[in-house]
Prior knowledge:
Blueprint: E1 2-9, H1 14-22, H2 33-42, E2 44-45, E3 50-56, H3 64-74, E4 75-83, E5 92-93, H4 94-100
Antiparallel strand pairs: 1-3, 1-4, 2-3, 2-5
Amino acid sequence: MIYRVIARFKTDTAAELRRRLDDGSIAAQQPDGQELVDSLHRAVISESGDVRWSERCYCDPPLAHERATILDHYFDDIVTQPIKDYQEYEGRPFLDYLESQPST
């Protein structure tokens, strides 16, 4: 199943998330790491600060494993909605935004 995901990014985790994306530790997570990385590459951040992406997941409830291992550490207020196919959203690419955050 593919889901639309809307969440609020915890900005104080930017440096750590960038590091984990760059070092491959998220991609290496089984069974969903590469899909999560690909999803964050598709993600955008709106002017209101919402991050939106679409992601394939077979968990019940949706994104259960991803939330337990990665997403809940970096995002708040995660909402999912089933959709038919991957979607593109309006906004600044999330990874561009992430790169612009101070590394502390």
